[in-house]
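[job 0412] stage=fold_complex status=start
inputs:
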Amino acid sequence: MDQIILQILNGLDKGSAYALIALGLTLIFGTLGVVNFAHGALFMIGAFCSVTLNRILTIGYVPEGAEAQSVGGFSFGKPKEVPYVEYWFGEATGQAIVDWSVPLSILFAIPVMIAIGVIMERGLIKHFYKRPHADQILVTFGLAIVLQEIIKFYFGANQIPTPAPEAFVGSFDFGALIGMDPGVIIYPYWRILYFVFALALIFAVFAFLRYTTFGMVVRAGMADRETVTLLGIDVDRRFTIMFGIAAAVAGLAGVMYTPINSPNYHMGMDFLVISFVVVVVGGMGSLPGAVLAGFLLGILESFASMREVIELLPGVNQVVIYLAAIVILLTRPRGLMGRAGVMED
Amino acid sequence: MSGFKMNRRGLLKTSAAVGAGLAMPTIFTSAARAYTNEPSGGSVTLGFNVPQSGPYADEGADELRAYQLAVEHLNGGGDGGMMNTFSSKALKGSGILGKKVEFVTGDTQTKPDAARASARSMIEKDGAVMITGGSSSGVAVAVQALCQEAGVIFMAGLTHSNDTTGKDKKANGFRHFFNSYMSGAALAPILADNYGTDRKAYHLTADYNWGYTTEEAVRNSTEAMGWETVAAVKTPLAQTDFSSYVAPVLNSGADVLVLNHYGGNMVNSLTSAVQFGLRAAEANGKQFQIVVPLYSRLMAQGAGRNVAGIFGSTNWHWSLENVAGDRYAGTNAFVQSFGEKYGFPPSQAAHTVYCQTLLYADACERAGTFNPCGVVEALEGFEFDGLGNGPTLYRAEDHQCFKDVLVVKGKENPESDFDLLEIVDVTPTEQVTYDASIFGGELGSCNAGT
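[job 0412] stage=fold_complex status=done
writing structure:
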């Protein structure tokens, strides 16, 4: 029982990342009709926003008279730098700011990601709206590789540890909370936070689309672009902004993911394929479908990696997501919540 | 056919042209090259095949730095590094056999097919007489086989699988780096001393060749001293989030988690294990422990403070001579030389490839030829010292180096990005030596090519 609860928790937290990326993908597909293979790269760039802010916050100066640090007794060390934030705000506050750099990166990443999204859409992707999906896939995939290589050029290929604030390090006894023996279901604080953050972000996106005039126009545009344009509304501009928002959602998913796994330039590609499966299983163009499928496949993947399951069906952990996709598409060809007429012309 | 007329003169001309064409290859080869890419001018070309893209690009970059340093030292530049401490004094700083050392580089991408393609290009187009490098056993085995066919020497870089000098060994291939068996043999006594002999281990193993051999080595040596293996779960190589594999460990009855992972896999699985509180947990009335059989500095850097207190093994560490004394002479000379040039200490990948380059050059000098068969003969059974690992033997039976193995632990309070591991103990060569026949494979005979 405890193992089942543990894997459900794990699936929800894995599914959070899938759901957020798939949500952004669906937003772009639903509004602009573009299959964006660069979406994984946006997730990765989000994670590197957090690395970048950490680097910015730790930029320092060498205090006067500081001696070169000895590296294990060798003479090639550099003097130790003191971060400017410690100089400006005092040592304790400065260290706390650096410690909280991942949550602070949310504020940094939102404008950066929206800007990157808008530039990407206006600068490149808009030229491919009338081209076949295959062209869009090729150009966005190429873009993903370019973005990846740029990040690798500046940050290297190695993973960069980006720890959570000290307050969130450690784990939480979930079992004790639901009346089980203590120590049976232990779950890391940050992963629980990631799940809560994902839910909040998903809720915010849905609320934005549901309860704002802007969102209403976007939804109308998704349903019937031509009519909305004929009413004199500049749908294109709104869709561009939606692209920016979708980029920000992927970026925020990346920012918050950095303490879970140290980011590297390739992390976007690792998520990309699964996210597409999530979108297809959820139903092309269906936002609730993307979220539902994200969590569902996350849970499925977690269960498939249980030792008991692998012993019974060796290798199932590597293919379970694709098996599930096949089964769902055979029984519900439009995906879980897909609508008729989307991607069917 | 009416337009085609062949007269006597035309026939003669055509025959002469065709004859010359057919004779061409033999004209070039008839310069009597005794072996593939025999250097003819005043220089000799070495091929450095390292990952320049892909996940191990940083490790490849460090290897390349060490290669450049080695070439500089061989050609008489810099401070000479470990050439000054090397027990063999055949190298004079005047290149190899009087020929200036030049090099070409290839990108293995950490993919066996790409690595073979770049090695082939360096051999066929650039005339490389020796290929060296790499950061993966899959690549090492593939390139080693290619070098055997082509008739050039292969000096392996960072490759830790038993297979490289075990079932896939080749007469033209040599490995300075240690292997999975040695990691297991070196770690087991230290683990027993620190954690006791009554332990239950849970293995997470990367689902590929290196993972299997490492799991097997660690299991065999820990079970021999009384540990029990509760479970061993294979994880996909492409896995990035290991939480679903790590989460059940705490309640599995195990009190030690062994992560048979390397590179990104290790960084991610260790991070997950620490997040799930395994380091702080208790099981079976004991403190829970994590073990990482193979450590590298890049992995330690990627995992950050999560490595603190975790045991593993390495081939070499830059603090070795300062910690363990003169027996490891050469270490400080190399670190100083590398640090002066690049501003930070070298990694174990850098060290092993630097040693390999010097060992190759020295073997050519002692053999008096670049002929692979001469080099093989000079390296087989070669005993040397002063390259940072203490007295070392290049065993003739499998072309594997035998030397002391380091057991290290993640530092609790590292002073810098390069100071993440501390040496706990050095396991003497005798304890990590095994019979050459246990892993099977046939060395075959050396191939000098054409």
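[job 0412] summary: The longest strand of chain B covers residues 43-50.
[job 0412] exit 0
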